[in-house]
Amino acid sequence: MHLYSKLMLAASLFLLPLSVMSETFDTDSTDVQTTEESWVKRNLKKLKTFVDTRAVRRANPDYLELPKYGWRVAVTSNFAGIGASVKGHNIPTYQSINVDMHSNLSGQTSILVGYRSLSLSYSFDMAKGYSSDFNLSCLNSQFGIEYRSHTTYGLHGTLDATATPQTLPVNKNDTRLRATIINGYYVFNSRKYSLPAAMKQSLIQKRSAGSLTAYGVILSAKLTSKNGTLSKMLGGLKQIEFYQAAVGLGYGYNYTPNRGRLLIHASAAPLIVFYNKNFLTADAAIPLPDGSSYNTEISKEVSAKHHYFLTGVARASVFYTFNPHFYIGSNALINDIRFDSASGVEMRMDDWIVNATLGFRF
Length: 362
Hints:
- The protein has three helices and 18 strands.
- It has 362 residues and is an alpha+beta fold.
- The longest helix is centred in the first third of the chain and has 53 residues, at 3-55.
């Protein structure tokens, strides 16, 4: 055998085990990769099944069904506003005070991406204004929770005082109102009636149905005066701050005249406020030994005029589904908020939001 042939044979014998090892390693790597892909696909399928099942858990298929396409994208225009009034009785120097205010219409655009009852949205201002609004919700057919925070500097209106000959204006930026509202609900007839079908279009209401619905609300609100004259007219009052918790039982109904293509919803619930903490912050002059005074702010808790009182929440919506892909609609939410103190300060606030939505399922 020639020397060249011997060297080639020796090289082949040396490289053969490496080649076998390389093929074995590649095969094992492919098997591991295939196993990982199978594990991912398997668990994604389990997650999808879980979400689909939870979305129609215990639902009657004659009344409620999942849309053909689970994913959805929606563009929503949100319009929100606040109306507020403050009354003061037996205030030194100014006697009775009545302040009526309302906010500018606040507009936002929201982009939503969701699968079934799960959704994620991002909102941005359509134009620079005096208000900001943040919303977050997790809605199911049987129960759900919504979080909303609304801040506005745009309240404006008039101030009437018994001791003054004319009405005084309240301008934008004179006050700041910040309200945070958490709404929770429980639907008793969740087999046939769905609140998310009316508000989020994550389910299809095939036949008309209604249900008693239990509500729980946690509220915090703070009205701050940024105008010294306004504060002085209110007896030095600079801030009204209150915290409430309420429960109630209401009724909602979904009307679907054509197997769910058109859906008209209305619901309302009176609420009993059972927890109420209120604080007033005012300017105060503390006399000093030398006869001068020290000006400061004093915040104190004030007792409510009534231990229990009524408030309420109401909703309405209209949606139309053109085909399995496209739908359009509008919904609205309003909260009635009030506070009466034993010392003569009363506050009323109507907090509302209206949405116009164009959605696409895929």
